[in-house]
């Protein structure tokens, strides 16, 4: 690691070199030199994030100088040990530039011309046409759950409210949970991945196929909490994934297909126009 004293010596050496240099040298202080390459003080300062403490700035400067010295030393060594033909990257650079220019235009074309409106009917049509591609890799469930302390007050009617489908009972359940529950979830019309549910509801089960097929209500304790869980629906691994769960994925797939079609049409139109304008010549 370059110490503070070393940085000071580099600083002083830079000043001395400035006093002796001819007018072709940079006007700014030289912090480090490797063969004919120089690292200027202004370049070093520009690489140090603003707002650092003096100690942190010194450490960062140390590392920047060290990395710069290593990079330039290795580069100089490589330059001296490769032939001119080996160092000629003009074709690669031209190919890379061509790819970047084409990519930039295609992105701009997509930003300006891509139709991003996707109807429910189009999503449904795609889903039905590719139904075999939408198989579940994990369990999903629709449920309600309540997590509350074992010592939570007024629990005598909680279980009745929780299992009831009566609207008034639900209102009482919701009011109770707002006051006393540690956590609760009542969006039973939404599909959830079981592994996400288990992060909040630690059901200890190994045979999930059998458990889900035979369980609609489950109450258990874990640690200092008790849990009430009510299952409304489920799907097992390898079942067909419901459309509601795949909507976002299908939207992305349709948009990606449109992007490819838009770019391919642009490419075909450009080539056809170039032929029509006699800008393409093929000699066989």
Structural description of this entry:
There is one protein chain. It is built from 10 helices and 7 strands. It has helices at 4-20, 41-47, 54-80, 90-113, 120-129, 158-163, 167-180, 194-197, 208-214, 243-276, and strands spanning 30-34, 37-40, 140-149, 183-185, 192-193, 217-222, 225-235. Mean pLDDT is 90; it is low at 4-24.
Note the quaternary state here. Answer: single chain
Strand percentage lies at 5-15%
Tell me the Rg in angstroms. Answer: 34 Å
Taking pLDDT < 50 over at least 5 consecutive residues as the criterion, the unreliable ranges are 4-24
Order of helices and strands: HEEHHHHEHHEEHHEEH
The CATH topology of the largest domain: Chitinase A, domain 3
**According to CATH, what is the class of the largest domain?**
Alpha Beta
Specify the biggest β-sheet. Answer: 5 strands, antiparallel
Secondary-structure arrangement, i.e. CATH architecture of the largest domain: Roll
Helix content: 40-55%
- In DSSP terms (H or I, runs of 4 or more residues), the helix count works out at 10
Distance between the termini: 64 Å
Overall 3D geometry? flat
InterPro entries: Trigger_fact/SurA_dom_sf
Protein name: Peptidyl-prolyl cis-trans isomerase
GO molecular function: isomerase activity
Keywords: Isomerase
């Amino acid at each position: 690691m370059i110490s503070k004293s070393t940085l000071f010596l580099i600083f002083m050496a830079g000043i001395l070199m400035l006093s002796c240099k001819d007018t072709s040298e940079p006007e700014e202080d030289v912090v480090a030199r490797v063969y004919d390459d120089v690292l200027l003080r202004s370049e070093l300062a520009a690489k140090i994030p603003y707002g650092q403490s003096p100690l942190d700035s010194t450490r960062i400067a140390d590392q920047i100088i060290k990395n710069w010295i290593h990079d330039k030393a290795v580069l100089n060594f490589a330059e001296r040990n490769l032939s001119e033909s080996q160092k000629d990257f003009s074709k690669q650079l031209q190919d890379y530039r061509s790819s970047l220019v084409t990519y930039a235009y295609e992105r701009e074309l997509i930003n300006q011309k891509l139709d991003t409106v996707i109807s429910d009917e189009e999503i449904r049509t795609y889903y039905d046409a590719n139904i075999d591609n939408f198989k579940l890799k994990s369990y999903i469930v629709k449920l309600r759950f309540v997590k509350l302390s074992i010592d939570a007050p007024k629990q005598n009617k909680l279980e009745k409210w929780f299992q009831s489908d009566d609207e008034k009972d639900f209102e009482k359940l919701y009011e109770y949970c707002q006051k006393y529950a540690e956590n609760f979830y009542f969006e039973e019309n939404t599909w959830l991945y079981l592994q996400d549910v288990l992060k909040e509801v630690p059901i200890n089960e190994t045979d999930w196929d059998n458990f889900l097929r035979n369980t609609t209500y489950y109450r258990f304790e874990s640690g200092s909490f008790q849990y009430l869980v009510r299952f409304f629906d489920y799907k097992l691994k390898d079942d067909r994934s419901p459309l509601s769960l795949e909507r976002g994925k299908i939207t992305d797939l349709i948009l990606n297909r449109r992007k490819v079609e838009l770019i391919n049409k642009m490419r075909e139109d450009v080539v056809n126009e170039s032929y029509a304008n006699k800008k393409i010549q093929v000699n066989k």
